[in-house]
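Re: duplicated header lines in exported structure tokens

Our pipeline writes sequence and tokens for each protein into one text file. With two proteins the header for the second block appears twice in some exports. Here is an export where it did not happen, for reference. First protein block:
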Amino acid sequence: MHPNAPSASLLPVIMGGDFGVYGIGRSFNEAFGCRCLCVANQPIEAITKSNFFDVVTIDAGISDDDRLAVLKGIAAAHPDKALVLMANTDVHSAFIARNSQALQACGYATPFPSIDVIEGLTDKAAFAQACGRLGIDTPGTVVVDFSQATDQDWRAPEIPFDFPVVAKAARGDAYDAIEFEGKRKIWFMESQDELDSLWESLKAAGFEDLFLVQELIPGDNTAMRSITAYVDSTGKVALIGSARVLLEDHAPTMIGNPVAMITETFEHLWEQASKLLTESGYRGFANFDIKIDPRDGRAMFFEVNPRIGRNNWYMSAAGANPMKVMVADLIDHRQVEPVQAREEILYSMVPDRLLLRYLREDGLRSRVRELIRSGKRFDPLLNPAEKNPYRNAIVRLQKLNHYRKFRRYYPEATDKSF
């Protein structure tokens, strides 16, 4: 690493090729004016046609050894650069944690927790236990262990709460490694028969990790909260911010991913999230999913992801660029005063008319309209710095595709939110 490196010598290397990767690169480019390197199989055109991204193409399903060789090759080709390795998926986060020593040895700063912390906190089953120790509320949870599921006498545990329930993998990287027909990111199960069918599908696909069944907390998408944080190399929470979710994606493989949010200060949630991170010895970026239970107002912590999250750019839009804090810590080796995102903005990836259609609360609808009128509506892919007309036309056409997606997967707003 290069102490006090000027921005011209900074090279962010970002694994993955979705809109979250673009958001990470946009934050780097806005903070330091630097170019970014995307390492991916099929990055979106918003990246490939960007004026500040270069791309290294890799094969799909590449092994750890081959992926590591690619990253070592990039480091060797840029000996004069201060390298930062970023990602925003569970698979890539786990890869970086497993190989952190080798990556750091060839010059990469890696703002991710260790593999021990990932297993002890960001694993969704372990997360519930950690929250319990600290008196933080989580949904009722049953852990289903598939490590012995091929045994003839294996049976899934009984579910002690009423249907409907939510089912999801404890670790995203283990679930991402399997494929089966009808696969979803999160499952909404109406009956025991549906749950039993899922167990059979997982067994047939060779799943050998942990799956969770959780009680369904009522309330629509607007009951969800997102927290983004950065813990510096001294163990201090150096950055934190949050948002109220307005609308989530409902396509099967993307369900639960916010597509529209309003940044908002939730001091009590910040305190709880900070306690979880500092008590666990966490380092690097973290992203929390929380839901407010409308029955009693309790904040239910669902999980913490060991990465900055797909919607990371909402922090930069709110005036708290995460990359400035991280680079100060890992590249410049200096402490900064804690940064908190307190500016209210609308972060949205869908057309305004579509968003307003799904907001059932008059107060939220009024806030959204006012933020749009006052010029505080931001989209990570609609970047004034991008001058390629083809790229910008593609991005705008893809926005319109949300009408089709929501008509197919979420035609009417409901209280079913995960």
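Second protein block, exported in the same file:
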Amino acid sequence: MGLSANTPLDEDIFVKVLGMNWNTLDDEIIFSFTELYNYANSLPLTKRSVLKVTAKIYDPMGFLTPLTVKMKILFQELCIEKTIWDIELRGESLRKWKSFLQDLILIDCYRIPRCYFARQPVDIQLPGFSDASERAYAAVVYIRSTYSDGQVEVRLVASKSRVAPIKRQTIPRLELLGALILARLVNKLKSLGIESHTLLD
């Protein structure tokens, strides 16, 4: 059962861990955006506000990459267009900014299970994927767990994204950059002790 946008974060159940809300009852990480949405709406519709709001989103594991990459792209566009910091946004830039604010409400109280395994798996794999477009490139790693009864579970571990360089690059080169951040992400996860292996009884 999910949380509604108006659900209060009970201090006895929800605690702050590394800047994120941890639901100690269901053992889930919760991203709540109601405060951020209200803060964003209190700001003028300017390039400076875009940067302020983007900087307030703390997502070290990349769970919110589909959301945050849109803001990175928007801010880069404003920089390319040499938009003045305190001039009100107009046209397509304003539409994208309002669309982002709407997304904050749509995914309010986004929940991520903190535990990777329901029980002891017999096999663990770390499938990773990367891709690129003209605007950005990204990588994502999942953990695929197989249990003794044949059940398989797949959960998101982490992701990374980058906006494409301002100097135009070919898609194959951007795909190589995506593969690079994927390799670095996998190596980082392995250094934390998360890696593929098979457990023998």
